[in-house]
Write a structure and sequence with these properties.
6-stranded mixed sheet; Luciferase, domain 3; Rossmann fold; 7-stranded mixed sheet; 15 strands; alpha/beta
């Protein structure tokens, strides 16, 4: 495989976004691993520090996963940083260092989230997309806000937009869409959706409610089950019908849940779980003897080709045989992770 950026991007368009099979996914992952080892200095130094002989890496489960904390202290990128790059940044508290993800070609991100949304929800033109998120002008360095802003434009619906601090107008629009039977997607950070639910209970039978996570000091921490029950009760929905989006600053792909907190990855993304007591050991390593495996979540994001496609997160999870997963909490030593737009702009 050619090592220059142009050919890498063609490689992505021609293979990664074409719904690779299990065997194709592993082959792509191994090729991308070799590319990133050669071109990403931070990742290369990390792998070398582990004393790993890369010539012996023949399986996906053997690829080293970079701790997500490196995005707080290093420039995790293949090659040199160019002037026309995009930098996504996580939110942070006064005691927390934000993560920074340098994205050389934001078009790859656009392709990833557009194709991902279409796979799970169909044509964005069919929706009125209402966002309980800060606007793009307020948090343009948030990867989530960037994605939603782009989808709002793609929807070509004059009522689609950001409604973070305008609950009255949002409620009016939701009720109007319900009366008209208009297909609506309401996406928001958890604390804002809870505020809406508590202050403005209503019947939302034609609206998809999608939470993106995020409490981070705004209010008491709740489990996903507790959050979904509160939202469902206020909006007269079934408790297992609340949708969720799983993404992060350091990635270019998302997983979605259409209920019960069980997530599905896009075809170019995969979750593995590692042993919490042995961070270099993948639980099961592909040899399943039970229905599910538990551990800390590792993510393979093939779209993240010019950064690092192999990320060891601080989330705990349960992985099922079919590749679906649940997020069960955080490692004790980790910072609480909220959505990347939970704090005000730095």
């Amino acid at each position: 495989m050619e090592k220059d950026l142009v050919n890498i991007e063609k490689f992505i368009e021609g293979a990664i976004f074409q719904k690779p099979t299990e065997a194709e996914f592993e082959k792509l992952a191994l090729e991308i691993f070799r590319y990133q080892f050669q071109n990403n200095k931070v990742y290369q130094e990390y792998v070398k520090a582990l004393g790993i002989d890369i010539s012996k890496i023949k399986a996906l489960s053997a690829i080293p996963f970079l701790p997500i904390s490196f995005f707080k202290s290093h420039k995790v990128i293949c090659g040199e940083v160019k002037k026309n790059k995009t930098i996504f940044q996580s939110s942070s508290t006064t005691s927390d260092i934000p993560s920074k993800h340098i994205v050389e070609d934001v078009e790859i991100y656009k392709t990833s989230f557009r194709k991902g949304f279409e796979l799970f929800y169909g044509d964005i033109n069919e929706y009125c997309l209402l966002a309980l998120l800060p606007s793009y002008l307020e948090r343009g360095n948030s990867s989530l806000v960037y994605m939603v802003n782009d989808l709002i434009k793609d929807s070509q619906n004059p009522d689609s937009g950001f409604y973070m601090d305008n609950y009255e107008e949002l409620v009016a629009k939701l009720k109007e869409n319900e009366v008209k039977g208009k297909k609506t997607l309401l996406i928001g950070v958890t604390y804002a959706l809870l505020k809406l639910a508590e202050g403005y209970p209503m019947d939302l039978k034609n609206t998809i409610i999608m939470e993106t996570g995020g409490m981070k000091g705004r209010r008491e921490e709740l489990t996903r089950t507790e959050v979904h029950k509160k939202l469902a009760d206020s909006f007269q929905l079934m408790a297992d019908s609340i949708h969720s989006e799983y993404g992060m600053t350091e990635l270019l792909s998302q997983a979605y849940s259409k209920g019960k907190g069980v997530f599905q990855c896009v075809p170019w993304m995969k979750v593995l779980v590692r042993d919490i007591y042995d961070p270099f050991s993948i639980v099961g390593s592909g040899q399943w003897s039970v229905v599910s495996q538990s551990g800390a979540i590792n993510i393979v994001d093939l779209a993240n080709i010019n950064s690092c496609s192999f990320i060891a997160t601080d989330d705990l999870g349960v992985l099922y045989q079919n590749g679906d997963f649940e997020v069960a909490g955080r490692l004790d030593s980790s910072d609480i992770r909220g959505c990347n737009i939970m704090a005000s702009e730095l």
